[in-house]
Design brief:
Length: 413
């Protein structure tokens, strides 16, 4: 087709019209080529990754791209990024397939930002970055799930004898990549500040008590980390907190009931003050994971009252959906705290905004397909309204995408 156009061109035509014809020919040629290799192009699009800085969906560089605005795309070619049974350190609380989940579509969703593509997760590249370094996830069980996901994402590229996991029986679990002298650790501190829930195993208490001004006991364990990833949200979700003035060891401590938002603000202030004084700005990268939504009330997405995330197999389609599993007022406090750290104290904490993209994923939770301390009994399994876990996330799944976003920030922002 392109050839015929060129033959039709009059050799006496002006320079302008010749170049116009040449451009037309090139465009038509390109269309021709595209239809020839259409299948290949479709495959590439499905694969949906770019390695470079400039995306193939748009002309926005990663550094300028809002990674948190986008959509989920079903992609069973390149997702999941690892197989559940292949991850040496998988947690039984998150291994939904192992505990009987049949519908596995939750493993196949890729996050597609509107303006650009996420960079491909390259475990070797991350491990190189972590050589002689220490990365610590600090927070609650949601953050622990993300840490497990991170370990699963990198461990496949490390030979068996060159990796280890050590739980020191206290708040710290350490994954070590020996060849790299790198560690990826999880530190249990669900409210960041000191609380009566600091025991990583027995922390289910009727009353929640925090020392909103005291963080040193935990923080001294991660002062020298190179990358810190924090979260704290769900443990605050009650109307009031009891704040303790004094120490947990003194029987005569003074307790005061304080509205949750106020106590959350106090705790984040203690956290920010601690960072300001102790963090080496030239060494440590700081990240804060925003709220992870829960899906415990199915009436919020049009099902009947009393149901929850159990039996869900697809996500919520409504753009911008926000359920009651998140609290925008808490998000505002986080934003304000991080903003002040940046502008007033010159400390760059990057907010990884996973809230909206996770809101859609009502089908991504373990529900009854999990082991808590013991596998659920049959009686519990037939009573999902009481026993379904609609808080944590199956792996592989949503937290892998959180880590892809974290990865993108580590390398590009
Ligand atoms: C595309 O990106 C390049 C390199 O960043 C820039 O020079 C150019 O102006 C951009 N074009 C558009 C249309 O945004
Ligand atoms: C988080 O991302 C969503 C989706 O882009 C956006 O609507 C929301 O404002 C963001 N929140 C914060 C605190 O950045
Ligand atoms: C991938 O998804 C497509 C579309 O849903 C389906 O036709 C195909 O069988 C799936 N392939 C695998 C390997 O699951
Ligand atoms: C991953 O990163 C390593 C180290 O930077 C590099 O040698 C390798 O080519 C990368 N792999 C891919 C598939 O890009
Ligand atoms: C190993 O990594 C730690 C940080 O986690 C660092 O302090 C130490 O110097 C490293 N060892 C070597 C031999 O580089
Ligand atoms: C566990 O590790 C932490 C942090 O290094 C340390 O303070 C604590 O004493 C250790 N606990 C045990 C039982 O080894
Ligand atoms: C689960 O979903 C299937 C298919 O939508 C439906 O037939 C079944 O009744 C549901 N089970 C419960 C317990 O809701």
């Amino acid at each position: 087709m392109a050839k015929r156009y060129l033959l039709l061109a009059d050799i006496r035509c002006s320079f302008q019209s010749l170049s116009a014809i040449l451009i037309t020919a090139l465009i038509i040629g390109a269309i021709y080529l595209t239809s020839e290799s259409g299948q290949l192009l479709t495959l590439l699009e499905d694969y949906g990754f770019s390695d470079g800085q400039v995306s193939n969906t748009n002309n926005v560089s990663l550094a300028e791209c809002n990674l948190f605005a986008g959509k989920w795309v079903y992609d069973n070619k390149s997702y999941p990024l690892y197989k559940e049974q292949d991850c040496t350190f998988m947690s039984d609380q998150l291994a939904c397939q192992k505990f009987g989940r049949k519908d596995l579509s939750y493993q196949h969703w890729r996050w597609q930002p509107d303006q650009c593509d996420l960079p491909r997760f390259n475990a070797t590249r991350l491990l190189e970055k972590l050589r002689n370094k220490k990365m610590v996830f600090v927070g609650d069980s949601l953050n622990r799930g993300q840490w497990v996901s991170m370990v699963c994402l990198v461990e496949a590229s490390i030979k068996p004898l060159f990796k280890s996991m050590h739980n020191n029986g206290s708040n710290l679990i350490t994954f070590r990549a020996k060849e790299y002298n790198a560690t990826i650790e999880f530190y249990w501190a669900p409210l960041l500040v000191e609380s009566n829930s600091d025991d990583p195993v027995s922390h289910r208490l009727p009353e929640r008590i925090v020392r909103a001004q005291a963080i040193e006991k935990h923080a001294r364990h991660w002062t020298n980390a190179d990358i810190l990833v924090f979260n704290t949200y769900l443990w605050w979700r009650r109307p009031f907190m009891k704040i303790l003035w004094g120490s947990f060891n003194e029987p005569e401590g003074i307790y005061k009931k304080v509205k949750m938002l106020r106590s959350y603000e106090l705790a984040l202030k203690s956290w920010a003050d601690w960072l300001d004084i102790h963090i080496d700005r030239s060494k440590t990268r700081l990240f804060f994971m925003s709220m992870s939504p829960t899906h415990e009330r199915a009436e919020e997405w049009g099902k009947s009252v009393g149901q929850n995330c159990y039996n869900e197999t697809d996500m919520i389609a409504r753009q911008g959906y926000q359920g009651h599993g998140t609290d925008p007022n808490m998000m505002k406090i986080v934003e304000k705290t991080i903003d002040e750290l940046k502008t007033i104290r010159g400390l760059n904490v990057q907010l990884i905004n996973i809230t909206q993209l996770s809101e859609y994923r009502k089908e991504g939770h373990p529900s009854i397909y999990r082991k808590q301390w013991d596998p659920l009994t049959q009686e519990q399994q037939i009573n999902p309204s009481s026993y379904a876990d609609c808080i944590h996330w199956c792996l592989p799944g949503v937290p892998d995408v959180w880590n892809e976003l974290l990865y993108a920030h580590i390398f590009n922002y």
